[in-house]
User: Which sequence fits this backbone?
């Protein structure tokens, strides 16, 4: 086996959908930290969105299978000593989330997010664009999302928490 180029690997990783939100790739989500070509193999490092991420095995498997489909051996390393942030979601990824009905998180301000930042807006509705929204439940279907409601168009939507 011969190793593919780093560009080839990044291209393949950019096509792997997030297992929980398949409208966004792992690269656009910002979880892929690095790609290293080492002889005839590839090493990919990634940081899950949070330590208890239930999609960890699925992401690891998809990365390995994607790289091996290029004809190289692949080592996938999960990096837990560095935290993922919603600031790592690419501009393309934010737009893909918005188009799919998810409100992307605002960029993080300096310092640590507080509960008040999660409760107050302005949070823009992905359906109609209104900022007349309210927090319905801080606990969404995953740890990184909450449920909001738009008073303008009467639609619920998921808001990514700023992490």
Assistant:
């Amino acid at each position: 086996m011969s190793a593919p180029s780093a560009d080839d690997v990044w291209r393949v990783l950019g096509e792997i959908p997030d297992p929980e939100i398949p409208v966004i790739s792992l690269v656009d989500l910002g979880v892929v930290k690095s790609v290293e070509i080492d002889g005839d193999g590839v090493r990919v490092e990634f940081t899950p969105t949070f330590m208890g991420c239930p999609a960890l095995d699925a992401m690891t498997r998809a990365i390995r299978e994607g790289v091996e489909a290029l004809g190289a051996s692949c080592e996938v390393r999960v990096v837990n000593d560095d935290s993922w942030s919603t600031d790592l979601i690419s501009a393309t990824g934010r737009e893909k989330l918005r188009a799919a009905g998810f409100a992307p998180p605002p960029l993080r301000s300096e310092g640590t997010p507080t509960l008040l930042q999660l409760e107050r807006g302005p949070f823009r509705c992905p359906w109609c664009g209104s900022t007349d929204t309210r927090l319905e439940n801080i606990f969404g279907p995953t740890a990184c999302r909450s449920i909001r409601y738009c008073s303008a168009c009467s639609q619920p939507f998921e808001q990514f928490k700023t992490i």
About this structure: The mean pLDDT is 87.
